[in-house]
């Protein structure tokens, strides 16, 4: 996870069976900006999205919704799994034809009360780390943590935001090749290149811990 252009944090997590091949995962990502909202067509929405659109009361969120659904419309290929997120007028779509479960989250970096929000979603060791940081370092770490947690919750079909407390990072964890890989993470620069997909042992551990907590569900939570 990184910050991109000083404004966007992104976390992508793939949830896969524990006995997958060591071959690299085929993961496709698309990133769209506010200009795509001109392609929005409410008549093309599925019944579920029509109901959700009718329930939306915030005009501030309306253009993000239009961008994300315009992007979704463009990508109609039959993927085995996909996940969509939007923030600050941008949308991110992740899809794979190989894996059954995945999650993605996209958030705008902004001024917030990291410690107050952290009490709602962060585990004890994560809060200790938050308190040691100051200024932009604390803000960036918080959004890195948030996007990772939300992506994991989506990947296993969990309850948002209740299950944010049930996943987290391990102190000292780093991105290294994982034997018998179970998860993938991405880091890079948006929108130019969504850089490298890599096997991440710490993400694999968190995904496994999360999944053991409750039965797997068939769909990712929407955005």
TrEMBL record:
Residues 102-164 form the 4'-phosphopantetheinyl transferase domain. This is 4'-phosphopantetheinyl transferase superfamily protein 1. The lineage of its organism: Bacteria, Pseudomonadati, Pseudomonadota, Betaproteobacteria, Burkholderiales. It comes from the Bacteria. SUPFAM superfamilies: 4'-phosphopantetheinyl transferase. One of its GO terms (molecular function) is holo-[acyl-carrier-protein] synthase activity. It comes from Advenella kashmirensis (strain DSM 17095 / LMG 22695 / WT001). Keywords: Transferase.
